[in-house]
């Protein structure tokens, strides 16, 4: 479904992503892991085109997407979350989700009322995720983990086929971690392909069908979680602080 070939992103002399190739298979959960500074978020940014790659190719469902604009990539079925939630504090969760809906986004400050069809869609998504309780909470009152849940809901407004989750468990309280794991599994079981960057190894080992390990901008291992966990190059990259 998603194929990344020889992707490079250089910042001056820094080779943040340096010839990275991997595939996220349709219907599976693929994790992109690696020590701090390995290039994971930069790779995500290049795939979702929030950043232009220096070179390399990104293919989605047989079509090349690395030259497209972010909204065109979203329209092709790829949506992503960010490490830091884009939650707008002066809006409710429902308003945030409708407002963040790509392409047909409602601009709350300019229009008096949210479009009813978008509201119904957002409410349906909140219900599907089992978080309708948050709909009318102010963005300002959300915990870090609740913001992550809201990000999941916003992600689904564009009817994606593949979702890229950037540290969905980062900074999340342990009581919400299980809920987040459950949501990711549920989205995958509903047919979504998932590519996930995460430092929480428990989450990675429990959820992923396949793990791609990056270090210093390159892929150093790629395989099932139980195999990657034992890989000497992976242990070295983590323990050696590569
Ligand atoms: P973490 O797990 O800590 O989030 P990461 O694997 O996501 O790390 P990146 O954030 O992609 O790693 O960073 C890879 C390298 O690129 C790092 O050395 C980082 O300092 C560098 N880098 C990232 N963005 C920029 C930028 N805009 N300008 C210069 N260097 C950058």
UniProtKB/TrEMBL annotation:
GO CC terms for this protein? plasma membrane
What are the recorded GO MF terms, alphabetically?
Answer: ATP binding; ATP hydrolysis activity
Q: Which InterPro entries match?
A: AAA+_ATPase, ABC_AA/LPS_Transport, ABC_transporter-like_ATP-bd, ABC_transporter-like_CS, BCA_ABC_TP_C, P-loop_NTPase
Which keywords annotate this record? ATP-binding, Nucleotide-binding, Transport
Q: Among its keywords, does the record have ATP-binding?
A: yes
The regions listed as transmembrane in this protein's record are none
Q: What is the designated name of this protein? A: ABC transporter ATP-binding protein
Q: Please report the stretch or stretches of sequence annotated as the ABC transporter domain.
A: 2-241
Q: Which domain of life is it from?
A: Bacteria
Q: Which family does it belong to?
A: Belongs to the ABC transporter superfamily.
PANTHER family, alphabetized = CONSERVED COMPONENT OF ABC TRANSPORTER FOR NATURAL AMINO ACIDS (PTHR45772:SF9), CONSERVED COMPONENT OF ABC TRANSPORTER FOR NATURAL AMINO ACIDS-RELATED (PTHR45772)
Q: Gene3D superfamilies this protein is in?
A: P-loop containing nucleotide triphosphate hydrolases
The UniProt entry, under PROSITE patterns, shows:
ABC_TRANSPORTER_1, ABC_TRANSPORTER_2
């Amino acid at each position: 479904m998603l194929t990344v070939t020889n992707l490079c992103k250089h910042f001056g002399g820094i080779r943040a992503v340096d010839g990275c190739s991997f595939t996220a298979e349709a219907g599976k959960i693929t994790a992109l892991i690696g020590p701090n500074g390995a290039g994971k978020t930069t790779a995500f940014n290049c795939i979702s085109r929030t950043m232009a790659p220096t070179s390399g190719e990104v293919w989605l469902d047989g079509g090349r997407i690395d030259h497209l604009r972010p909204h065109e990539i979203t329209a092709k079925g790829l949506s992503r979350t960010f490490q830091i939630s884009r939650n707008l504090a002066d809006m409710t969760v429902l308003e945030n989700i409708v407002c963040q809906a790509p392409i047909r986004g409602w601009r709350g400050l300019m229009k008096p009322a949210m479009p009813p069809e978008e509201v119904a869609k957002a409410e349906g998504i909140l219900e599907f995720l089992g978080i309708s309780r948050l709909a009318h909470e102010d963005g300002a009152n959300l915990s870090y983990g609740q913001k992550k849940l809201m990000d999941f809901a916003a992600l689904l407004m564009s009817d994606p086929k593949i979702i890229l989750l950037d540290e969905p468990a980062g900074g999340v309280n342990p009581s919400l971690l299980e809920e987040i794991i459950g949501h990711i599994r549920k989205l995958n079981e509903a047919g979504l392909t998932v590519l996930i960057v995460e430092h929480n190894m428990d989450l990675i080992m429990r959820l992923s069908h396949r793990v791609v390990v990056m270090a210093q901008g390159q892929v150093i291992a790629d395989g099932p979680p139980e195999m990657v966990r034992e890989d000497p190059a992976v242990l070295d990259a983590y323990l050696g602080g590569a």
